[in-house]
Known about the structure:
It contains 15 helices and twelve strands.
Amino acid sequence: MNVHASPSTLPELDEFLSTFNIKFRRSEGEAALERYLTGLLTELPTKNCDTMATAVPGTSEQRLQEFLTNMQWDEDDLNRQRVQKMSTEATVGNGLLIFDDTGFAKQGKASVGVARQYSGTLGKVGNCQVAVTCCYADARASWPVAVRLYLPQEWTEDPERLQRARVPDDVTFETKAQIALDLLDQARAWGVPHRGVTADADYGDNPNFLAGLEARQERYVVAVRCDFQVRVKARGAPPCQRADQALAAVPRRQWRTIRWRHGTKGWLRKKFVALRAWRLTAEGEAHIGWLLGERAAQGQADEHKFYWSNLAASATLEELVDYAHRRHAIEQFHEEAKGELGWDQYQGRLWPGFHRHAVTVMLALSFLIWLALRERENHPKRGRPRDPFSPSAGSLASSAA
Length: 401
């Protein structure tokens, strides 16, 4: 494929970047950022410093590597500015923060954080890096908030290895759930407007994650596994039972079919029911909430899913389902960041390089979303406004690209 970028800055990208105050110690820093972003936005099948340098005039592999590893600039401050811009220009409020993690297959042992570990991306244990991610989604748009690399204990217990990878001294071992709570605190400090949190069962089944959300007074609906322990608020209910057992006792007539919009697949539908219950911890504590069940509707293959929520007793079934099915936005972020913007193709081994690459990928994706929203506002389509329970009719970033 013969893909070459323009030697001059894209006018729209120049306008987008002009709103950021990025302090580079060296004058070529701004040009390096623009050229790196331009490389990510090309249609190159592989996007690393080597391939982008051949397709983007006015730069070189050495300059792009220098931008990621040695040039003096604050990637955290750039990400903060990006998030605050998106909070102002790409939200309608009433959105959710979504947490998940994603894997990057790697060969060898030198890349920061690489280890034999389970990756949902791989679907198995393999040699990979794993990053915890946070994403925002509402009825207007979805966009990434923050990313942080997970370091296995074999890394944090090896000072020489940490030093070689240039891991900051204050980075210690944290579980993925702890990292997710750190990212939540960061999003709150940056003023990201949200009404609650959602996550998959790897986080929903973690009592420390749920306790952290409750300590922060966050409302949530999270996926849980079938053996999640509950006590149903009903006469004659057992003192403790699994989520699947509790929901199996609900008469089929009480399950309701609910539709929601999900990506480009049109209206989806499943059957749902919610029970008022207590979640039970290993320490014997009981916390009141909702046990939400999901199963196949008529004509669909049999499938069961389970969720736990601390929404108020007045919450509707539609509201619980809305929370539960916003999680697809973060999966879309992972797919687009890797498939369109080369997030998984960083070849370096260093902590700063990994996170700077992630920040520039999120910046490039935000630029595409910003472009698409502006186009939508300038050329509105006829018809009724999209219902808030239909969070996405497709990827803004893909349409802008």
